[in-house]
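JOB MANIFEST
job_type = single_chain_structure
chain_count = 1
residues = 234
[input]
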Amino acid sequence: MEPVPGYVLHVRPYRERSALVELLTGPQGRVGCVVRGRDGTTRPFTRFDVVLRGQGELLTAASIDEVAQYRLAPRQLALGLYLNEITYRLCPRGLPAEALFEAYGHTLERLAGGASTEPALRRYELTLLDTIGYGLSHEPATADGEALRPEGLYRYHAEAGPVPADRRDAGHDACIHGSTLIALAQGELASPAVLEEAKRLLRHLIAHHLGSRPLMSRKLWRPSAGHSSVQEDP
């Protein structure tokens, strides 16, 4: 059986010297498997070649070999944990995810390289939403099919798309300018203004799809007693 490349998203101890591991692969998307005698072979932020056997929801890793490891500094580590958590929680098992797999690897490279991560994070969030069927429209139009006005202000509804905003929407995280929606539809994420609005909108949409249970990785950015957060908030 041919190995498939995968990244570890989540690990739980399982019986003696084994683990239940959630992987992100391309062809099969998120996969749950048992890894026996793990001893450091399931480190996060590492690309593995995995031979998977079995059927059903939980497979067995017949072999798991490290291909590349991405070393993240403390500042980037929290961002990597955020990537893993939103992927684990939003991407269902068995959904093909080739584009998401590629985007995940690219984002890890950016984090490990210490370069600006904002565009890569936003692209990853957009790809994740696309993968699970709730992506932003790739057409610069409202939910009713009207052309977006660059200077217009819109409220983005998670299930329907953008509609013209009114006074009651002012300051809401789902409010976004037409110029930003047009830029996102065209894949243009160079502008700081676009990145800032996109960050607020994508945070709102991801929270909507996650439901009431908060992100554990989000706690890494909350100030604690007498200390301010030192991590970059995604």
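[summary]
Helices lie at 74-90, 98-113, 118-131, 178-185, 192-210.
The first strand starts at residue 4 and ends at 14.
exit_status = 0
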